[in-house]
Write a structure and sequence with these properties.
The protein is built from ten helices and 13 strands. It is α/β, with parallel strands linked by helices and about 290 residues long. The protein has one domain: 3-Layer(aba) Sandwich (Rossmann fold). Bound molecules: NADP nicotinamide-adenine-dinucleotide phosphate (NAP).
Length: about 290
């Protein structure tokens, strides 16, 4: 099987690239601005588009992780967000259509308004910020294909070259004993998931020829303050990390956030009852064991 991972310099894509390579699949990963030694440059919006693949590697499946993921930045840079998230997906979909390629599109719980989450696959989306609106529009384009998976995820954590994700960032600060204060919303809830689990789940779904929408989430359900407190609780030396619980309203983030967000994984777990999910505790313990 030939797999192309678009956005493999990022958190989710890098885990997919590593895991699929471990599984001895033929896999290529791409970056846009952040060059890594495991990825090749690819910009769906450039005039050369997919030419970089030549005829030596025609993918059977594309995992599309590419999007503008800074939610507050999207709110103020709508055209850029549209181009990177919607227009680029349109071009990826056209390529898949022309070559009969399966597309796995990575989406988000931000397509929901957060009034009554966590959400199932069947609930009606109602995004309240630019990022969520563009992700939903991209989902709609992907649904024009015969063979697609839309994998919705949220609040992803894990090992990452840039340590951008919240937990990796906290661990970096703890390790370096940096004095830092975080004001964290006690009213924004989500279902955090380990990026390595997403890669393992996608591997199963693709191998089994599954189609349609799947929520990929864990059974953890935390607000941002609880999540940070949990990480901190494992480290007696983390005194320099100051955590304040505050409301989302007082944070004044540029983009509106779904408050009761998160995703229910009943569909996936019903189809894969033996799948062992990582939770936040297990991930931190593993990190400590491996020497943070
Ligand atoms: N992380 C989360 O908590 C989370 C939650 C819900 C949904 N998601 C979705 O999951 C996907 C992956 O997220 P992530 O956290 O791994 O994001 P990330 O770390 O920001 O990585 C995004 C990746 O996509 C590349 N990229 C960005 N725009 C692109 C475009 N238009 N065409 C091709 N490549 C592009 C980036 O390249 P460079 O970095 O090299 O420029 C990077 O490799 C995204 O679609 C995101 O919306 C993530």
């Amino acid at each position: 099987m030939n797999i192309l991972v678009i956005g493999a310099s990022g958190l989710v894509g890098s885990h997919c690239l590593n895991y699929f390579a471990q599984k001895q699949l033929s896999v290529i990963g791409t970056h846009l601005k952040f060059e890594t030694d495991k990825t090749v440059f690819f910009d769906p919006l450039s005039k050369d588009g997919f030419d970089f693949l030549n005829n030596n590697f025609i993918p059977d499946t594309i995992i599309h992780c590419g999007a503008l993921t800074n939610v507050d930045y999207c709110e103020e840079n709508i055209v850029e967000s549209y181009n990177l998230t919607v227009k680029s997906t349109k071009l990826v979909v056209e390529y898949c259509k022309s070559r009969n390629i399966k597309l796995v599109y990575i989406s988000t719980d931000y397509i929901f308004d957060g009034i009554n989450g966590p959400y199932t696959e069947n609930q009606v989306p109602n995004p309240t910020n630019v990022y969520g609106k563009h992700k939903l529009e991209a989902e709609g384009i992907v649904q024009g294909l015969n063979d697609y998976i839309i994998a919705r995820i949220t609040n992803v954590y894990g090992e990452e070259e840039r340590s951008k994700n919240f937990i990796a960032h906290l661990l970096t600060l703890i390790k370096s004993k940096t004095d830092k204060t975080f004001n964290l919303p006690y009213d924004q809830f989500a279902t955090p998931i380990y990026a390595g689990d997403i890669a393992r789940m996608l591997y199963l779904l693709i191998s089994d020829g599954k189609k349609g929408i799947y929520n990929l989430s864990s059974t953890d359900y935390y607000n941002r303050y609880q999540l940070a407190s949990k990480v901190k609780s494992y480290f007696s030396e983390a005194d320099d990390l100051n955590l304040n619980a505050i409301s989302t309203q007082s944070l004044q983030q540029k983009a509106k956030r779904p408050l009761l967000g998160g995703l229910l994984n009943n569909k996936f777990i019903t189809e894969y009852p033996n799948f062992e999910l990582t939770n936040v505790d297990a991930f931190i313990l593993k990190t400590i064991k491996n020497g943070i």
